[in-house]
Design goal:
Layout: E1 2-7, H1 11-22, E2 27-31, H2 55-67, E3 72-75, E4 78-84, E5 87-92, E6 97-104, E7 108-110, H3 118-124, E8 127-128, H4 131-134, E9 143-147, H5 150-160, E10 166-170, H6 179-187, E11 191-193, E12 197-203, E13 206-211, E14 214-218, E15 220-224, E16 227-229, H7 232-236, E17 260-262, H8 273-291
Parallel strand pairs: 1-2, 1-6, 2-3, 6-17, 8-15, 9-10, 9-15, 10-11
Antiparallel strand pairs: 4-5, 5-6, 7-16, 12-13, 13-14
Helix pairs in contact: 1-2, 1-8
The structure holds flavin-adenine dinucleotide.
The site of flavin-adenine dinucleotide has 40 residues, from helix 1, strand 2, helix 4 and helix 8.
């Protein structure tokens, strides 16, 4: 029986697996290969890289570090999870996998706007998802926020700290802006468009938003349509989640199900690489402590 199974091979899962391997625990890492980190063209807040670093490079470095330890990596999607007498059993698209402890690092997925060339717009920095990550890069620029509800108002006000040129665009079918939201936007000097957006497309080095026959060009458009939290496995195992779907964890990243941990974007907290890695280190250390010393089995080594 494996000591620990980690589901998810983004920064949280990779970091947890490295820690657990260095604690001399047997580890299986299961990953479906859709990490959010792959979408980062260049991060300027990842520690230690003054000129920034691409998400793919961070992922490659972590994978290379993990490969120097005897961790089994299984590339597949975990479909179901259940508790057993001494741990957890996972049903995957390949073989079943069992472990005494389970760490979920399954992340979230941003809901993209309906537009052509989403990936190329992200790579060019004309489409963004995360103001905490990169609002510094848009200081003083013409910034749009695209949303379908109150989250857009909050995001526009957040971004106003970084630029005086903010426009809020509403998606089709959204609830429209309430009177107090309009007041907040007006007080902050933020423009908005009541006419829902007809189309969005990359336009050279900028992004074009069409709404009721009007065309607005922005340097960057932040998409605030929300995200999908991959907490299904945690919920199926009985763990509690908050209103958005984030898995609730304690200071050790333990869920309220014994032996089940969660770290990274899937757990409640700030969706950032440094936070994902820190949480993973904390969770892995707690798992090691909980499994207890293994010196009888390791006599002489
Ligand atoms: C465009 C963009 C820019 C960003 N910029 C920055 C930045 O500059 N700085 C910063 O700190 N953060 C940034 N972020 C956020 C950062 O990418 C995330 O915080 C980080 O990737 C979270 O790591 P994670 O390991 O929790 O999840 P992820 O990296 O998303 O990894 C989760 C993994 O779990 C796998 N998985 C999910 N469910 C299953 C399952 N059932 N079975 C098997 N595998 C499964 C997924 O396929 C995926 O590989 C950015 C995000 C985006 C989208």
């Amino acid at each position: 029986m494996t000591d620990a199974v980690v589901v998810g091979g983004g920064p949280a899962g990779l970091m947890a697996a490295i820690y657990l391997a260095r604690f001399r625990r047997s580890v299986v890492l299961v990953d479906a290969g859709q990490s959010r980190i792959e979408k980062i063209p260049r991060s300027h807040n990842y520690p230690g890289f003054a000129d920034g670093i691409s998400g793919a490079k961070v992922r490659d470095m972590l994978r290379a570090q993990l490969r120097s330890y005897p961790v089994r990596i299984v590339q597949t999607f975990v479909e179901r999870a259940e508790r057993t007498l001494d741990g957890f059993r996972l049903a995957t698209q390949q073989e079943p996998i069992e472990g005494k402890r389970l760490l979920l690092a399954t992340g979230v997925t941003d809901i993209p706007p309906a537009m052509p060339q989403v990936r190329s717009a992200l790579d060019a920095g004309v489409l963004r998802y995360c103001p905490v990550c990169d609002a510094y890069e848009v200081v003083g620029k013409a910034v749009g926020v695209y949303a379908n509800g109150p989250a857009g108002v909050a995001e526009a006000i957040y971004l106003r700290h970084f630029s005086a040129d903010i426009t809020l665009f509403m998606a089709q079918g959204g609830p429209g802006l309430a009177a107090d939201e309009r007041r907040c936007l007006a007080d902050a000097g933020i423009r908005w468009n009541d006419a829902p957006v007809d189309s969005i497309r990359k336009h050279g080095e900028r992004i074009e938003v069409m709404h009721a026959g009007t065309r607005t060009l922005c340097d960057t458009l932040y998409c605030a349509l929300g995200l999908t939290v991959h907490s299904q496995l945690a919920v199926a195992l009985g763990a509690s989640v908050d209103d958005t779907g984030y898995v609730r964890v304690d200071a050790h990243h333990a869920t309220d199900v014994p032996g089940l941990y969660a770290a990274g974007d899937v757990s409640a907290g700030l969706n950032q690489i440094a936070v994902a890695m820190g949480g993973a280190a904390v969770a892995a250390s707690a798992i090691h402590r909980e499994l207890g010393p293994d010196w009888p089995a390791r006599a002489g080594t």
